[in-house]
Amino acid sequence: MKRIGVIGHRGYAGLPVILSTLLDIAPSLGISLAFEDELWEIAEEGDRLHHPSEVDALFTLGGDGTLLRGARFLDGHVVPILGINLGRLGFLTSCGGDEFELGVRRFAAGDFTSEARMALSSATLDRDGVERCSWLSLNDVVLSKGGFARVVKFSVFVDDEMIGSYSADGLVLSTPTGSTGYSLSAGGPIVVPTVESIVLTPVSPHTLAMRPLVLPPQVVVKVRADDGPAELLVTIDGQVGTTFMSGETLVVQRAPSPVHIVRFPGTTFFSRMRRKLGWGGLSERDGETI
Prior knowledge:
Number of helices: 7
CATH topology of the largest domain: Rossmann fold
CATH architecture of the largest domain: 3-Layer(aba) Sandwich
CATH superfamily of the largest domain: Probable inorganic polyphosphate/atp-NAD kinase, domain 1
Shape: elongated
Strand content: 35-45%
Radius of gyration: 20 Å
């Protein structure tokens, strides 16, 4: 019997119904369910989810943010994530809430592929070079000035070679998966998820010479803030993070293990781009064919 971890966002109205349905169909599919504490309080059945080593797969109930939180929960534990979208966009998720039962049944039957996605390992070092905080992220790491209305001067190093001094509101270091997120909004390129790389995108750069940079996946990127507000912010996947002081160092590199996302036959990265992002025009929305 496969043991499935379940995490979710309690803000979605249809969540109790989905949890009830999961509990009803789980025995016939040969799966057992372990819920994070907040979901167990709703389900009131199944086991409690404590550690990623306890599960063979993870279901996330919510949107892209819930899937990103699930990836961080796994912390490098290599199991597939089935993302069930209860929100609006759901670019990273595997199926919508209206088709989740079919998606779960297909998953239980093995009718899916597991798509490996590069993740980032990042850490902040204090002025003495001692690690203060560390994280895993599937989307991006952002170093920003917070609410201060002045640019920050960043020194950026790749494999200990200085590549330039950036004057900008912030810097986004993203995976290919995260290239369709904040990096894209800041003018960065879209990178196909299988093309492993680290994308460095300045936010509101002060000069025209600063452009996004696509780096090889094996490099180590170090960023230091040389001038600007006394306190900056490091944000991981837009959800967690810490303060960052002048003189400290942010270190970002490829994580040791990828994150595996469930994909069903018939769906591709480009079809999701066209459908979810309106890429290349809105012909699918308007009912046109090519």
